[in-house]
Amino acid sequence: MRLAGGVAVFLVAVTPVTADPRDEVLSIAARCNAITDYRAWLDCYYGAAQPMRQILGLPPAPSAQVNLVPASASAVAPVKPPPPADKEDYVPRQHMADYSFDKLNRFIVTMEDGSKWKQIQEDSVTARWRATPASYSASVVPGWFGFMMRVSDGHSYRVRRVP
Asked: What is the pLDDT of residues 80-122, one digit of tens each?
């Protein structure tokens, strides 16, 4: 009887365990939890799903998303607050005075206070504004990777100040 128990333990110990690909993706996605910026966290989460995309034969995730995934849990930088914004770089909620789009559909917004903000190239969200500028309100707040423009259309966009 003892021999049978020992053999069973041995077989369990040497039998390879095949991990469910979903578990692998969730384990990788957990590395994204140190990212507090919502958009960057979501991009990291999408990048973490790369192994499942390969299994399903889907096109690869954009490298910008995959590169956000830390190499290991120990590679995650300690969480620290974003740097304080200069008072001139923080824009409280106000209406847009003007907006325009370049040939890549990135916007430049002029706020009521005269400050100008351009959507950065790394931002993957396309604004679909059609109404007059004054019908949109926005605020600019510091984020983990620069500044975020929160617009009344329900979206947040990564921006930088234009001189």
From this structure: 444 454 555 567 889 999 999 999 999 999 999 999 999 999 8
Region for residue 105 given its phi and psi (left: phi exceeds 0; alpha: psi -120 to 50; beta: otherwise): left
End-to-end CA distance of the chain: 82
Strand (E) or helix (H) holding 5 = helix 2-14
Model confidence, pTM: 0.48
CB-CB neighbours of 39 under 10 Å: 19
3-class SS of residue 109? strand
Distance between CA atoms of 56 and 74, rounded to whole angstroms?
Answer: 29
Number of residues in the chain: 163
Tokens of 145: 């990777």
pLDDT tens, position by position, 113-152: 999 999 999 898 999 999 999 999 999 988 777 889 999 9
Contact 147, 115 (CB under 8 A): no
Every domain of the chain and the residues it spans: 2-75, 87-162
Report DSSP state, residue 136: -
How far is it, in rounded angstroms, from Cα 42 to Cα 128?
Answer: 21
